Amino acid sequence: VPFGRGDRPVEAYVLRLVEREGTEGLKSIKRLLDESPVLNEEMLALAGWMRERYICTYADSFRCMLPPGIGVKSVRLVRLERELEPENGKLRKIIDALREEGGELEYKELKKRAGLSRGFDKMVRDLLEMGAVSVRDDFFPGVKEKRVKVARLAMPPEKIAEIIEGNQLKRIQYIRVLEMLMESDYLSVSELSRFSGVSPGVLNTLSKYGYIEFEELEVKREPLLARSIEKSSPMPPTPEQESVLQDVKAFIDGRVFYQVLLHGVTGSGKTEVYLQLIQHCLELGRQAIVLVPEISLTPQMVERFVGRFGKDVAVLHSRLSLGERYDQWRLIREGKIHVAVGARSAIFAPFKDLGIVIIDEEHEHTYKSQTTPRYHAREVAQRRCLYHKAVLLYGSATPSLETYYRAKNGEIILKEMRERANRMVLPQVELVDMRQELNQGNRSIFSRKLAEEIKNNIAGGQQTMLFLNRRGYASFILCRNCGLVMRCPHCSVSLTYHSKNERLICHYCGFTVKKPGMCPKCKSKYIREFGIGTQRVEEELARQFAGCTTIRMDMDTTSSKHSHEEILNTFRDRNINIMVGTQMITKGHDFPNVTLVGVLAADSLLNTGDYCASERTFQLLTQVAGRAGRGDVRGRVIIQGYNTEDFSILAACRHDYASFYSQEIKIREKLKFPPFTNIALAIISGENDKAVFTAAKEVRDSMVTSFDSLTCEAEVLGPARAPIARIKNKYRWRLIVKCDSLDLLVSAMARTVDGFYSAAKKRGVELSVDINPVSML
Predict the structure, then answer these.
(1) DSSP state letters, 186-254
(2) What is the pLDDT of residues 503-515, one digit of tens each?
């Protein structure tokens, strides 16, 4: 449709058709993109609900539902029609720029080439009236079927390496892109942007300065699941599994919306229950969605589902290329595929008759989007299942307190599986106090007990997994002479040391610098790294256990498209002695030969200033402990920490969810945290600290007024500095609101947001609102 004064063509969505008198003066639609609607009535209604619930726009909601690139891109072109020598010098610049480029240029490029900013639109209109130029809009599809834009190095790899080593680049994003291209002849721009975690603007900047270049290549996409996967058959259910299957199948048959929490210990066979319930749905001609919390879990889950259902399975997650995601979405929409497996966004798979939605590891915070719209897959799943009269099944060994509380109160049906499917007992857990280890002269990052068990596993040909919730080599760099800690100049955090390329990196904005040889402040040589990360653990293993094989799985080793799958397969197929990793290794993986799990710094997640800290600690420890002993040998777990008296750690050692829940729920009730109330987190940010603080006070006053007008009681706390006070040169202040009514809380916050952005000036200040956030930082 033509938008704005300049009739700029933009993609638009038709929500409904109306017939109304007095519509003179409306503009005409320029072009219809789709012969049939891309969203059905259910999805349009869902978008409307998301718009209200998550305080976003319709377009924000549609972006969640449609695969990237499904629409079109438009380019406005200016063409020289006849030679003129206008008296106006600025008009001559436009004519000259067009002449130099063969008579035609893209509108924005012409503006840049002519060196004009103010008044450019009017000058083009003047030239149009003179007949000197013509303007036309060209459209092309966002998803390319046969051709793809790729990037390659524009100079020899040796030269690039020299530039990086010479510390000439100050952004880790630039270095990450160049290092990826040094390992390949070329990479598609979309995948390079996604896997390096940078915006297209970063690639354009690298191209502008001559580091990389772009070109179009013709490609042939291979089918997504074109790999050999062994077919599997349903396994005879255990008595506990049979009880769950009978009840949930009856709910599916009844075509009534039910919510079921499947609380099963690690290794109890929840996945087999999922598979047999989906089979039942398929036999009824209905469809199923399975959500997994991490992309790292998707390959293993896909393998199990494809093994059971063959080509009737689609995979939906962000690591797929644009074309692959589009193809999978289209197959679902056309009714050619009936099962979708994927991360959070898979909840929007366009099925027409859902029978069941399964949320595996339902407690995971990755089901909550951290960008607009800040939706929770659990809430969206409830809306979809209610519409389709389907079953919503939550599965977890450590359910979120909110879900378990609802189950205990009868809002959700609770089904429990307390035994492992292979009849093996849960792993034996031992807690080691690292304070005592230090007092007894052990300065290693491994306790003597863990070191002994690792040696035994290596000797016995059994595998070990070590979990540490911190990547990199060291937490920070400290000068022991003057006390200087190397900090990010743009964020209120210390820089993390990565030993692979001897760089200090900010994990929030990407700033990087080479590790200094001496203190920048006092010039002392006594500057060194402190704290440990997964890189350091890997190095210590090689030093302490000579000859052992190790593999690492964290954000630094899983940047490429298939890296998750490759690391997991390598660990299993080559029988690697030890896997070191962050949260990626704690859940879902099933390796029968893993008999030992070690947890380093178990208490590192506590005391973060987040009310969910104890819950997350319990969940992580329980989940990672569940990776041990899934074969024929009973597992052992060694948990190390300095705060070994915390109730969440003690409960995890006993695999005792009930005692953890009973204690944590009392704390939540006393402090009035979810599930006993609802919380809104408002972050006000900007480059001028004083302006941000002033705006934060205005936002607080607006909130109070909104709640008063709704005659609703609410507790408004703040403004106070956010725990991370500055990110990417923007100061951050936060407000926390507690309100018993979710509807009234959303309504009040929506009014506050509308008032904030309708004000004439906000002095470069931004406001973001998250209802019931998963992180308070």
Answers:
(1) -EEHHHHHHHHT--HHHHHHHHHTTSEEEEEEE--PPPTT-S------PPPPPHHHHHHHHHHHHHHHH
(2) 888 888 888 999 8
